[in-house]
Amino acid sequence: EAGYLVVRNTAGGVPLGTKLCYAVGGVPNQITTVAIGVSLQIFLLDVVQVNASYVSMILFVSHVWDAVTDPLVGYLVSRSHRTAVGKLTPWLIFSTPFGVLSYLLLWFEPGGSMSQPPSVLWYLTSACLFETLMSCYNIPYFSLNMFLGGDQKDRDSATAYRTTVEMLAALVASGIQGQVVAVYNTEKQEIPVTLNRNKRVWINRWMHLICVLSPQQKAFITSALVMGALFFLCSLVLFLGVKEQHAPLCSDDNVRPPYLTSLKMLMCHAPYQRLVLGFVFSVLAFQVWFQLRVSVLCPSKHDETQTCYLIFLIIMLYVCSLLFSVPVWQAVLLRIGKKATVFIGLSLFIPAVAIVACVPSNLPVFMTMCILMGFSTATIFLLPWSMLPDVVDDFTMRHPTCKDLEPLFFSCFAFCGKLARGLSVGISTMTLQFVGYRVGACNHGDRVAMALIVLFSPVPVALLLIGMIFFRFYPINEKQRGQLWEQKTTIQ
């Protein structure tokens, strides 16, 4: 114990301004994720006119690359040396300008006459480069929670502020991208009228791109510039408002295990195992339900416009309930602890899903249950990320010679979340395809109806119960949290 030294004072706590600036740093990831998820496929298919199979390949490879690079970047960050501005901050400074540039390249068409193979290579390279640079930004940013100063309550409070701001950013980005898609749809509907009026139906592809698709392309490029500007401004707020503190404990022993050895140590750590498994199964449950939530809305009773507005209203209710419930759950966890809060929050999802399955055609009931589901979903956005620093503390005390692995913890956790979201899409899509689901059709056979019912209720509930079992055996309670922090702050 003589080799360790406490190098920061936690008595003063973390100022509110620092927490808010830290929370703003989470905006770039949210707005770019929403923009890519909503608009990139439309842009590549209809503006750039890339073949659909190539678009699917670009999106799939870039998402796989994004997931794979997270642990690798986490290990590289953990192996980097401390500088005058800290260990994590240089990664944030380096990745921001290049991240903004690579994001803009995603929405730039290198040439209207470019053939398919070079165009595909351009967008595939741009997408993978952007995901790599975002990993270089996100992993140090998530890890920065451990280096804000203050105590455990300050860390938990900073996580709550980050979650709230990220949800607000996702809501704003959805609105911006909704306007872009609206411009795209308007221009697309006006194309035949303009062509017929000017008797230019048989113009060649080059003139078609210049004369017809230019307004659409301008809408996407304008959106990209707005997102890039927000990315840079929010990162600037993070740099100027948050000063990276030293690690709570500094060791003279400079043990840096290899990459695979570090991963094995993390995965063999029991609290991390159970937290990750509980997180993965819970995210799977929510995402499977999220993928199928609109399928229960049959457009037979409404026209297409009414259905779109109805779906938009339901999504807004769901997101707003997520946004406003985070402070509520933060207040609850301070009173009853994190494990108890997780169980209460996740349990709300089960009756909500059951009621929707039993009363599928009652719109007021469905909207009310969506609000309740939003309150439940907020716990999985907040609590696991709030529990992760406690796991890192426990690992640090059990393996005192293995230091600076915080980025690897956060990167592997982010990877598991992305893996769960990818699995949810695969489960729902493959099941519906197997039973003969047809996109856009309202009347389906009994097999499709049964598959929708099973995917919308029993499957998410079963996955959630498995996740709750792992949370039940998560070993770090409030008493142990206090003991861990006392040990860290008393070692001299």
From TrEMBL:
Which locations, inside or outside the cell, does it occupy? Answer: Membrane
Question: Key word Membrane present in the record?
Answer: yes
The residues that cross the membrane are 88-108, 120-144, 219-242, 272-290, 310-333, 340-359, 365-388, 448-471
Q: Which domain of life is it from?
A: Eukaryota
Q: Kindly give the InterPro entries that the UniProt entry links to this protein.
A: MFS_2, MFS_trans_sf
The membrane topology noted for this protein in its Swiss-Prot or TrEMBL record is:
Multi-pass membrane protein
Transmembrane listed as a keyword: yes
**CC annotations in GO:** plasma membrane
Q: Which UniProt keywords apply?
A: Membrane, Transmembrane, Transmembrane helix
Swiss-Prot/TrEMBL GO biological process terms: carbohydrate transport
The protein's predominant localisation is membrane
Q: Name the Gene Ontology molecular function terms of this record.
A: symporter activity
Gene3D superfamilies cross-referenced by the UniProt entry = MFS general substrate transporter like domains (1.20.1250.20)
Family (UniProt): Belongs to the major facilitator superfamily.
Q: What is this protein called?
A: Major facilitator superfamily domain containing 2a-like 2
Organism this protein belongs to = Mastacembelus armatus (zig-zag eel)
